[in-house]
Amino acid sequence: MLFKFDQCQATPWKNGLGSTFQRYIFPLGANLDNFDVRISMAKVQTSGPFSIFNGVDRYLAVLEGNGLRLTFTENSTSNTANHPAVELTQTTAPYAFKGEWSIDSELMDSQVLDFNVMVRRGVYRATVTQHLLTTGNLPDIQTECHDELMVLFLANAEYLDETAKTHSIAQYDLLTVSNNIITQWHFKHATPVIITQLIKCAD
């Protein structure tokens, strides 16, 4: 399934300090309090604290702009006061952290566009990695039980699928595809992507 970026609508942040383009949520119709999986993008225009999401594992990547500097403080559910500051830029790997952590985000210059994956701990696990996708190549992906992949395209792309049909995908479109299918595709150009692998935890 293809989720077009130009069809996304902005929704307010939980902390009221901005808005987010929701790309995917499960279960369908879930909200910020009861989702199991949520994938989103946000234009960050001001520095400020992250919202707290108890019981959620988070992954964050910078897509545009100079970056974010994250600093950590202690709260009632986490002791991260001694955690070193983290700087996220377009060249750093997606950063994994717990939704309970108290984090202040500071713009390193002007606004940034970021990519955010959240999964309910104990319900789903996730891996979020950045790749240069080429024909027949899916590097460094540890596949489990034919998991579906959520592929965010960081540039416009064209490829031939397993039936030799040509497809065009726009920058920031999000595609769900199984790992055994995508390795059969033939890309006209090497294409930068962020791949999110969602793994259902055992009951």
Helix content: under 10%
Query: What structural class should be given to the helix and strand makeup?
Result: mainly beta
Quaternary structure state of the chains depicted: single chain
β-sheet strand percentage: over 45%
List the strand order in the largest sheet. 2-3-4-11-6-9
Shape: globular
Unreliable stretches: none
Listing every helix as H and every strand as E from the N terminus to the C terminus, the arrangement reads EEEEEEEEEEEEEEEEHEE
Overall strand count: 18
- Nearest-angstrom radius of gyration? 17 Å
Number of helices: 1
Please state the average pLDDT score.
87
Could you give a short account of the major beta sheet?
6 strands, antiparallel
